[in-house]
Amino acid sequence: MSTIDVLSIGEPLVEFNQTRPGEPGYLQGFGGDSSNMIIAAARSGARAAYATRIGDDEFGRAFLELWCAEGVDTRGVAVDREAHTAVYFVRHGPQGHVFSYLRAGSAASRMRPDDLSPDLLRAARFVHASGISMAISASAADTVLAAFEAARAGGAKVSLDSNLRLKLWPLARARALIGAAAAMADYFFPSLDEARVLSGCEETDAVLDWAHGLGAKAVFLKLGAEGAIASDGTRRERVPGVPVQVVDATGAGDCFCGTALARLAAGDSIVDAARYANAAAALSTTGFGAVAPLPRPDAVHRALTRAPAR
What is the CATH number of domain 4-10+33-52+116-306? Predict the structure, then answer.
């Protein structure tokens, strides 16, 4: 099997995104953090693959068509004839976007370690999952941890996005399992707000100390519109935000992860990868939906020329 730059593990969800606050119209699209990030990685030039389970339904088939169109390897995608593909809704209001989910018992939540393809894991240079990938079920958490262990044993790099969702699991369990996964991570992608909840720390330096203290070798601390901080445990460099007209921030953090891993796979330093990913994530907020606005390299490079100086 040929080399894969990035293998992502998690749950795809069909998206219904409210286009006008307070009005009933919804735009159908695609979401799920691990699916968003692998499409972002593919659009930024990475050889990408996805591992998940989908339902034997129209939504599952639509996802397969999407991934194939985006150049994502789907050999790790299993079709579950006894479960459905998950769905979520996004509403927009004064406090930002609000999510509602129909995901209980989804096909992806039935992932098991035995579903993992040894060939895909051996071929991957980076193996990525998120807190959501683990939160959807105990067997999914086991699958992620098994994948990370296999990746490390095979010489691949491990990547984790915290993506804390307390509607899916209690904080104590989230801290335990995200901590266990971060201990194996070569690259850890927490957002500042999530890291504050997980760590109990407020200051960014303390949050970074906590993240490295878990065992993560490199940390990309996502600051939203304020940019990001890249840290290798010794050097910490802040990348300023890129001003854009925000329409919908759904999936921006996923875009950051996917594009950063694509650039790391291409040989960038963590700071250069953070700079590229920061611009890509900003551009992803300029349209509706998690997938449609994900940018391609030419757009990102144009944005970088307009980015604020360090």
Answer: 3.40.1190.20
Q: Which two tokens stand for residue 209?
A: 């100390």
Non-local (6+) Cβ contacts of 284 within 8 A are 40, 251, 252, 255, 293, 294, 295
- Give the 3-state secondary structure of the chain: CCCEEEEEECCCEEEEEECCCCCCCEEEEEECHHHHHHHHHHHCCCCEEEEEEEECCHHHHHHHHHHHHCCEEEEEEEEECCCCCEEEEEEEECCEEEEEEECCCCCHHHCCHHHCCHHHHHHEEEEEEEHHHHHCCHHHHHHHHHHHHHHHHHCCEEEEECCCCCCCCCHHHHHHHHHHHHCCCCEEECEHHHHHHHHCCCCHHHHHHHHHHHCCCEEEEECHHHEEEEECCCCEEEEECCCCCCCCCCCHHHHHHHHHHHHHHCCCCHHHHHHHHHHHHHHHCCCCCCCCCCCCHHHHHHHHHHCCCC
- DSSP bridge pairs for 51: 9, 76
Residue 98 pLDDT greater than 90, yes or no: no
Give the catalytic positions in this structure. 254
Q: Tell me, what amino acid is at 92? A: H
Identify whether the C-beta of residue 115 lies closer than 8 Å to the C-beta of residue 102.
no
**Sign of the alpha-carbon torsion through 175, 179, 182, 188:** positive
Please provide residue 249's backbone torsions phi and psi, each rounded to the nearest 5 degrees: -90, 5
pLDDT at 309: 62
CA-based Rg of the chain, rounded to a whole angstrom? 18
Confidence (pTM): 0.94
pLDDT, tens digit, 9 for 90 and up, residues 34-78: 999 999 999 999 999 999 999 999 999 999 999 999 999 999 999
* Dist CA 151 CA 141 (whole Å): 15
Q: How far is residue 5's CA from residue 224's CA, in Å, rounded to a whole number?
A: 26
